[in-house]
Design goal:
five-stranded parallel β-sheet; about 25% helix; binds S-adenosylmethionine; two-stranded antiparallel sheet; 7 helices; alpha/beta; about 20% strand
Length: about 220
């Protein structure tokens, strides 16, 4: 069982995690996903989770103490846990990194918001800072879901082995070949568009050759 614990100030943002493959993975007991409201770990009447940045500047910064309290409470004893802070300035996440997370029993994901998170979380509480790409999002909720989804599908039993075998990035930066389904022939914007003949041939050797030839290579902007 792989356990994910997500720390957020927007716990209602995660309905994606209870759909389709992830729904089944949780139902089968292969994956457990807990969402925690950081506010619940804030002491004091007002349950404050953020404050103004020292040194001035725009926006608010998430405070350390509620996150520190949450991680302390949630972290499993005698299990392999990894604490991750989602951050635009983190190291860029990829499939290799997703595979490497399989060795942990528990992954704790801290979602930032506003101007970010007090740097002491990155320095003294998180094991690492991860970015899901070279752009800025409004919060760490989408990145946390990206990590949960990409790691969960690699957990044995979540999806069938055959599907994983030829998937994009399954070996290095190789991407998957083009896929087609019915109908064989279709009119798109006045032109007849057909499925490549070889895929209808039943000749597995030729299909494999065609797929290898048409597998894309990773391109970047
Ligand atoms: N002021 C920060 C900066 O310039 O790097 C951006 C803060 S962003 C608006 C708020 C939160 O969204 C961040 O603390 C982080 O948790 C999350 N976030 C934004 N972009 C991200 C990315 N590319 N990868 C991971 N998390 C991201």
């Amino acid at each position: 069982m792989k356990r994910f614990d997500i720390l957020t100030i927007f716990p209602d943002a995660f309905s994606y995690l209870s759909q389709s493959i992830l729904f089944n993975a949780q139902k089968k007991g292969l994956v457990k996903i807990n969402i925690h409201n950081i506010r619940d770990y804030s002491k004091g009447k007002r349950k404050k989770v953020d404050d103004k940045p020292y040194g001035g500047g725009a926006g608010m910064v998430l405070k350390v103490e509620p996150i520190q309290n949450a991680v302390k409470k949630i972290k499993l004893k005698n299990k392999k846990s990894r604490v991750i802070l989602l951050s635009a300035k983190g190291k860029i996440y990829n499939q290799k990194k997703a595979k490497s997370f399989l060795k942990y029993d528990q992954i704790i994901l801290i979602c930032g918001r506003y101007e970010g998170v007090d740097e002491r979380v990155a320095k003294y509480i998180a094991d690492e800072e991860l970015s899901i790409g070279e752009y800025v999002l409004s919060g760490g909720e989408l990145p946390a879901m990206v990590v949960v989804d990409s790691v969960s599908r690699l957990v044995p039993g979540v999806i069938n082995k055959e599907s994983l075998k030829e998937e994009s990035f399954s070996s290095g930066n190789n991407l998957e070949y083009p896929q087609y389904t019915k109908p064989e022939t279709l009119e798109i914007e006045g032109k007849i568009r057909k499925v490549p003949k070889v895929l209808l041939s039943g000749n597995h050797k030729e299909i494999k050759k065609w797929r290898e030839k048409h597998s894309k290579k990773l391109t970047k902007f």
